[in-house]
Design a protein that fits this description.
By secondary structure, this protein is an all-alpha fold. The protein has one domain (about 5-370). Helix content is about 65%, strand content about 5%. It is built from 14 helices and four strands. The strands form two sheets. It has a two-stranded antiparallel sheet. The radius of gyration is 21 Å and the shape is globular. It starts with a helix and ends with a helix.
Length: about 375
């Protein structure tokens, strides 16, 4: 038993109390969102809901997370930096949910929040060498430590934000990711990290009943960017400093769905001559919907893949040598298979015609006539 009973109780209470605060705060946040005009109106083709829904629900997650961490976690310099950065992210996200900020302003604020965490010691100093059969088992970052850390935090912040396109998707994937890293934190005896991740898990679960399809409230940028930021910074705090853990692979696998979707979106938009910040209808969840899946089915598919990769991350943290390499390759093949399924799979299930950017095309005249006959 790595921890005393008191530590286990603290971890359990962190999850339960964060859940209770988030669950109780969500209806209040919903009313507040309506008052300030934080409403998601489906005016774009990429939207999958058909009526206005309040957003800014991430405030409930934030309250549950923040209050629980203050109550149960040891407020070290690193934790203080994460909390300060989280406040910056939430304030910016709340403003964006009302006013729709310029993407460059959002990127600048995200970089500022990442810099705050770095200033308080949340820095990637060393990585386990992914080439398992080389003599150098670790890679020291040196002068690259700060820029790599900021890139990681900003990337994860945007990654979770980009997959927030279906009811319950970003919140549920974040639950799976935080649980994955929570288990690894327990394995390496990082009690404080485990408390923080338990608080994040509980806060997300408390919000999910209002966010599952059909959603009564969206988390908005307030929530999606908060979740990405916290998961990124806590992974640096808890897992990037252990030589015995595959320090790069574990958090990457835990966040594989949002990270891979973000990478594909970035290059897809560039190849189409678009700005990387231009929203489109080409994300994983859109492709699943285009194949004929319902929202619930598409979310279930992505939950399942995220859970499989999360399990692979946990197994990787307990093994070494050739088995570690085999499992890493297997996880990559799973991700590749999902990509093939989503982008090249069977589209005979009532497919939706889309243009190169992934936006739906209007039906052809003969299709309209057929619909009229039906």
């Amino acid at each position: 038993m790595l921890f005393s009973s008191a530590v286990w109780i603290k971890i359990g209470l962190s999850c339960v109390i964060a859940f209770a605060i988030s669950f109780a705060a969500t209806p209040v946040v919903k009313m507040f969102a309506k008052e300030v005009g934080a409403i998601d109106v489906p005016t774009e083709a990429r939207r999958v809901h058909d009526h206005p829904i309040p957003r800014m629900g991430g405030l409930a997650i934030f309250f549950g997370f923040l209050l629980t961490v203050i109550l149960f976690a040891d407020i070290t310099d690193q934790v203080r930096g994460i909390l300060f950065g989280s406040i910056i992210i939430v304030v910016m996200g709340a403003i964006d949910d009302v006013m729709n900020l310029n993407p460059w302003i959002k990127l600048g604020v995200q970089t500022l929040a990442a810099g705050v965490a770095v200033a308080y010691g949340v820095v990637i100093h060393v990585l386990t060498n992914p080439a398992a059969f080389t003599a150098n088992q670790v890679l020291f970052m040196g002068y690259l430590a700060v820029p790599v850390t900021i890139l990681w935090i900003v990337g994860c912040t945007n990654a979770v934000n980009l997959i927030d396109g279906l009811d319950g998707l970003a919140c549920g994937v974040s639950v799976i990711s935080s649980l994955t890293m929570l288990v690894v934190a327990l394995m390496v005896a990082e009690a404080n990290v485990a408390v923080i991740l338990a608080a994040l898990t509980g806060a997300c679960i408390g919000f999910l009943p209002y966010n599952m399809n059909p959603a009564k409230l969206f988390m908005g940028d307030t929530g999606s960017q908060l979740l990405g930021y916290v998961l990124a910074t806590v992974s640096v705090m808890g897992m990037f400093k252990y030589y015995a853990v595959v320090t790069f692979i574990v958090p990457v696998l835990a966040l594989a769905i949002p990270l891979s979707d973000t990478v594909f979106a970035f290059f897809r938009r560039l190849f189409h001559g678009q700005s990387p910040f231009k929203a489109d209808r080409g994300h994983f969840h859109h492709k699943l919907l285009d194949m004929g899946l319902s929202q619930k089915q598409a979310v279930a598919v992505l939950y399942s893949v995220s859970a499989i990769l999360g399990l692979a991350a946990v197994v990787l943290a307990t093994t070494g040598g050739a088995l570690r390499m085999i499992l890493g390759v297997a996880a990559f093949l799973i991700a590749l298979g999902v990509w093939f399924f989503v982008f090249r799979g069977n589209r005979n299930l009532h497919p939706i015609n889309t243009d190169e950017a992934g936006n739906p095309l209007p039906p052809k005249p003969e299709e309209e006539a057929k619909d009229g006959q039906d």
